[in-house]
Protein 1
Amino acid sequence: MSRPRILVTTPIPEPGPSLLAAAADVTVLEASPSYPELVALCASGTYDVVLTQLRDRIDAGLLAQATVRGVSNFAVGYNNIDVAAATERGIMVGNTPGVLTDATADIAMLLILGTARRVVEADRMVREGRFHGWEPELMLGTDVSGRTLGLAGFGRIARATAKRALGFGMDVLFAPRPPGDRMVEDSELGEFAGKVRKVEWDDLVASSDFLSLHVPLTEDTRHLVDAGVLARMKPSAILVNTARGPVVDEVALVDALRSGRIAGAGLDVYEEEPRLAPRLAELPNTVLLPHIGSATVSVRAEMSRLSALNAIAMARGRVPDHAVNPTAWS
Ligand code: DGY
């Protein structure tokens, strides 16, 4: 039997490359392909499966021409892939859930603390030689203990963030699936029953000192945080986004930060990555990270393993363990 052929669009860390090489003929591109290059590669008839990154746009146009039977995304999120179009074309999609929950929640907590305590400004002051010794009113920030953290969404990463925030003495509220609303039974709260409180999205917006976003990017959540929402937040509030950039209207956010309508923002993701909205980088009341929620050595290794195993399963004609659209081949 001939070995399956797998295309990897960007080099990934071990153990993925070794697992793939043992099971298939593998082509690894040196750097992310342009969209036309990716379309041509996926339509070339050369590959059974493509292992993609968030930067690879797998849209309906590409899928209409694709000859691959599977797309294995090196990420838990898959908003770069038109899953409905893939399903329609009988193309299976895989992702890497579970393994990056704690690392991403750590970054959410880091952004909460970093914005509250002005860590970027403080670091810059020291490096630029502007620290002249302890002063009673130097770099005063905001407490986190006793403050309200509002979680937009209550999935894995939101829950891991709640756990951390409770440890820091914060009051935790959540809206389960904004912008809509749904009932959540106490039994669904598990270890959080009695410790966190469900509120409606509008209440969450109005009552949070820190509003942290944990929703997938869908047509419903695009610009979930827009000028209207920013206007309803407390003027002292801080927005934290470790989810997806387009969940926030970034131009409206810059406006709100510049005019003092909200106090600060901690961002790991951007609306048009890697580009930032004009003037965002100039704002002192922000902590800006380069989409590193899952960036630890062990987490990226796990993502590599899961995405490789998904790709191998699909190349062998088996539904992978982490299929986003498991019925695609039926
Ligand atoms: C994901 O996996 O969706 C993250 O955004 C990148 O690790």
Protein 2
Amino acid sequence: MERSIGRIFNKLQMKNILITGGAGFIGSHLIKRFVKNYPNYNIYNVDSLTYAGNLNNLKEIENKKNYNFFKIDINNHDEIIKLFKSKKISNVIHLAAESHVDKSIESSYEFAKTNVLGTLSLLEACRKTWTEPYQNNIFYHISTDEVYGSLGLNGSFNEDSKYDPNSPYSASKASSDHFVRAYHKTHNLPILISNCSNNYGPSQHKEKLIPNILNSLIKGEKIPIYGNGKNIRDWLFVDDHCDAIELIFEKGLMGETYNIGGGYEISNIELAKLIIKIFDEKNLNPVGFSEKHIHFVDDRAGHDFRYAIDNSKINKELGWRPKTNFNDGINETINWYLKKL
Ligand code: NAD
């Protein structure tokens, strides 16, 4: 048994863990890890399989005894309640979301529906089926650093940074964070929140920046880069994010927020050139050969200039730091896409 201030995490106590969005990019990595690391827990994957969900991401564990998949929309509250009751769901790790900023600009409604109301549907299910003192319960909400808005060239976001979302996506995630915290304050629901920087790795949908660059390179098509390409992101390898989620799930302090960042900042244009360099080396092309595919397009509306995360809290309190060197992570990622795309 391990002790953290405010709660006891008993690895031997039976848990029925609902992971939402498990057919998506981060969710599928997390489910594979939990199914393997917690053979005595039941893992229930709830995913409505939007265009972003792909059960092929989970092939290697689909027949495991402690894994079950349910195709349910989190907004279908009756189905969610039925599942909570029939499977005695004791813990939730909530990742299901509409996650693409560009889509949220074109049409925001689905973002409010899934990210805000869907989160509320799950919180209500916890409130209705769990009983105080919630000894074996956790509602863990996975969120983004984008809720904090945009930084200039200096500084980084910590857990006290003010919420200042600029896109409909980040506004919907910010709203869901507030609901989660409010259910803790109002109903005493045992919650955890983490806000993470940009993830990269295998199995990400090709609408996102890194798979999009690789997809364009493989097809010999234009690589669209927004504006002047100088916007900066802080990249984290998806396995490192899952490490942090597992640690927070076990040892996080109830009611707390943890920021998670990769500590590897790079502008979009530098990132594209780096990926092109590695791609050209692997294909024995002359240096810079594929840079001709870079194509600057009109900037994204409300485009945040820079994100950066201050990892001090999770590092000091839980001992987490990213393990994967960016060069290793990006090579592993590129190799995966070259095989799959
Ligand atoms: P993703 O788009 O790859 O996957 C989302 C999954 O949710 C899909 O499988 C989809 O089918 C499912 N889903 C969508 N709407 C649903 C609904 N109404 N009911 C049930 N399932 C539904 O997203 P991702 O990149 O894996 O992100 C997962 C979570 O992590 C999101 O909450 C996102 O905000 C957060 N996050 C992502 C990043 C990142 O860089 N990808 C960074 C920080 C935080």
